Recover the amino acids of this structure.
């Protein structure tokens, strides 16, 4: 089966390289624009995000449009063989709009309306704001629909799930609830278990999303905010889709945050894009940061069935966020940029192209410094990335078909934040659990799809659901069917505890029919202080052939085997001898239950054995040194293997075959040395050039 997708836009069959470009900040000095074009060519940039916060420059007063400066920029880009990722300006409203129409400003939970200022703080429900966005977006689309530089539409910027408690939003929320609960108030009250503390809602007008004691209500408020954000996105992009149907539309996600359900949002965009800002060198463990970032890359690739995504924002040097402002050390920019490509990005883009002279992000890293030339280290390293990407046309549109699914679910994360934290305290650490279960595959070079509970499972051999506290409708049935059909599933402590309304399942944990699938009953769970651990030992002769002693940390559960084979037991505490790891045969498959959070060696041993048993495909059939990963992109014929060294020292990798070094052009075989922060892109032999593109999105 082909896994080559079409390029993001066929007029540019190359990897995109560029960044957020704000020429409206330099209208008074148009000579800077010409210098920008020269520098873009030197840096190997071919696509610039334009107009993201330019509403005041495009419409300085209501109904008066000034597009001349943007005409000039679009023409200059085209003349220099560049393209525009052209933005709609809704992410930051102009002052005249806030003053003339106060309803566009969000209202806090205490009823106070926010003053004008900041960004990303418009009311998503406001008909006026939607009308004004549609008006300016229509003019943008009409004006540039035939322009040769137009490549992609960039809708708004970093939509967030911020609250607005204005009358319009509360009314829309209640209407959304009526539809969700079939206009049945009793059904809503039951779902919210609102009789607790006598909080039963007597009518729909009494439902206000401020009572954090009602977890089901707060979950629905988060769902509504995602719904309303997607609805706003569809409204403001409708003219773009109608006037320029051949131009893909995206918006930059922030999946490292939990403000929106990005799995749902992904269905509304043509291509997923996201903003990645790892804290390299902050903790002294760049490998852990690489794992965390890789997981998010894989999540973005999986959101649209393996379709390549866009790295919409990254930074050449220092971001304004983070506790410590440390620059990327030499080599890290190329390594981190190609990490995104290795996991499925067809772009490397930055915030920002040229540093602003003033305001909040004037010191945020940029390709062009205040000094203004190509002489900075950051510029030279960006140019190095540009030169590398120019050698990689064959990778455009390639992807990977993982055999492993890791389930990281946004709604479950909300439920843990609202409900489970009360029980497990500071040790919920949902993202940390997901990263811990992901890391053994990253270390082994085994591709992984990071999906949510709504995704199908039939394409995988192994499905892993860490801390699946809340089950969304249908997930338990899909997991059961997956195991029955021969799949291997892994679930951990404190899973299948509540339903989508945060109501506890009756009949024991795991609930919703999964107690039978996993063959266990989790009687009780608890957290541990930092100085406490619990011993775990593998049973001799267990079905997986695992051996050794390990430690449980943070939290563990007392589990009873109900038909499952006990693979490991606790060795101390009052529950010594009870199961810590079980395996249940169900239908044609296997279901494993991990009863405690463990240190890394336990998961490495478990997943190493499962990978061998299942014959999971690896990017490179060789053992990798610690801190080095191998990632694969392929169209089913040509294989591209990315070797990435996140150590602060060189590493040596034994290759499994002869390859061509795509960046160096020479043949390589046997032992391959990677420099500190080194990266190699290897192509399988005998497959030069780029095959004919085939859109495999529906395959």
């Amino acid at each position: 089966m082909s896994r080559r997708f079409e390029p993001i836009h066929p007029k540019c069959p190359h990897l995109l390289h560029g960044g957020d470009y704000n020429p409206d900040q330099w209208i008074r000095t148009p000579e800077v624009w010409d210098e920008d074009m020269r520098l873009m060519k030197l840096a190997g940039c071919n696509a610039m995000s334009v107009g993201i916060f330019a509403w005041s420059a495009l419409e300085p007063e209501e109904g008066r449009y000034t597009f001349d400066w943007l005409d000039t920029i679009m023409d200059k880009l085209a003349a220099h063989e560049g393209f525009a990722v052209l933005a709609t300006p809704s992410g930051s409203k102009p002052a005249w709009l806030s003053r003339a129409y106060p309803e566009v400003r969000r209202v806090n939970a205490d009823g106070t309306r926010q003053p004008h200022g900041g960004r990303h703080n418009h009311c998503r429900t406001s008909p006026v704001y939607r009308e004004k966005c549609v008006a300016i977006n229509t003019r943008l689309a009409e004006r540039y629909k035939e322009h040769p530089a137009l490549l992609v539409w960039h809708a708004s910027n970093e939509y967030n799930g911020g609250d607005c408690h204005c009358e319009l939003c509360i009314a829309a929320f209640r209407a959304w609830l009526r539809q969700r609960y079939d206009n049945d108030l009793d059904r809503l009250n039951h779902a919210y278990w609102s009789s607790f503390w006598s909080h039963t809602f007597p009518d729909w007008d009494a439902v206000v999303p401020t009572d954090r004691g009602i977890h089901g209500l707060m979950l629905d408020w988060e769902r509504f905010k995602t719904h309303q954000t997607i609805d706003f996105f569809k409204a403001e992009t409708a003219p773009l889709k109608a006037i320029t149907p051949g131009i893909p539309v995206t918006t930059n996600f922030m999946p490292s945050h939990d403000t929106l359900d990005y799995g749902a949002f992904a269905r509304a965009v043509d291509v997923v894009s996201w903003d990645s800002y790892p804290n390299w060198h902050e903790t002294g463990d760049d490998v852990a940061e690489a794992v965390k970032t890789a997981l998010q890359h894989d999540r973005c690739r999986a959101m649209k069935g393996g379709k390549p995504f866009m790295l919409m924002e990254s930074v050449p040097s220092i971001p304004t966020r983070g506790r410590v402002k440390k620059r990327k050390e030499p080599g890290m920019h190329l390594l981190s940029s190609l990490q995104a490509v290795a996991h499925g990005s067809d772009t490397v883009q930055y915030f920002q192209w040229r540093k602003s002279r003033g305001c909040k992000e004037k010191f945020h890293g940029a390709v062009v410094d205040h000094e203004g030339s190509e002489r900075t280290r950051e510029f030279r390293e960006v140019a190095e990335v540009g030169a590398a990407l120019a050698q990689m046309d064959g990778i455009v549109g390639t992807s990977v078909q993982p055999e492993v699914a890791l389930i990281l679910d946004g709604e479950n994360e909300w439920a843990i934040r609202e409900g489970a934290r009360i029980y497990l305290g500071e040790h919920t650490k949902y993202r940390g659990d997901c990263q811990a279960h992901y890391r053994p595959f990253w270390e082994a070079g085994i591709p992984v799809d990071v999906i949510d509970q709504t995704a199908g499972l039939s394409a995988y051999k192994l499905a892993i659901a860490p801390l699946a506290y809340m089950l969304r409708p249908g997930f338990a049935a899909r997991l059961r069917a997956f195991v029955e059909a021969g799949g291997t599933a892994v679930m951990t402590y404190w899973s299948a505890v509540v339903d989508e309304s945060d109501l506890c399942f009756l009949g024991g944990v795991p609930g919703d029919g999964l107690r039978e699938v996993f063959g266990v009953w989790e009687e009780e769970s608890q957290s541990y202080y930092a100085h406490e651990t619990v011993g775990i030992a593998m049973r001799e002769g267990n079905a997986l052939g695992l051996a050794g002693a390990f430690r449980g940390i943070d939290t563990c559960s007392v589990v009873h085997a109900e038909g499952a084979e006990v693979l490991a037991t606790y060795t101390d505490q009052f529950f010594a001898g009870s199961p810590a790891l079980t395996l249940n045969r169900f239908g044609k498959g296997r279901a494993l239950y991990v009863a405690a959070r463990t240190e890394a060696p336990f998961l490495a041993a478990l997943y190493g054995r499962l990978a061998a048993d299942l014959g999971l495909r690896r990017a490179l059939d060789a053992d990798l040194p610690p801190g080095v990963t191998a990632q694969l992109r392929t169209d089913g014929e040509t294989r591209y293997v990315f070797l990435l060294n996140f150590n602060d020292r060189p590493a040596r990798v034994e290759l499994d075959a002869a390859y061509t070094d795509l960046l160096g052009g020479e043949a390589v075989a046997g032992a391959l040395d990677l420099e500190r922060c080194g990266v190699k892109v290897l192509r399988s032999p005998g497959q030069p050039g780029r095959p004919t593109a085939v859109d495999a999105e529906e395959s």
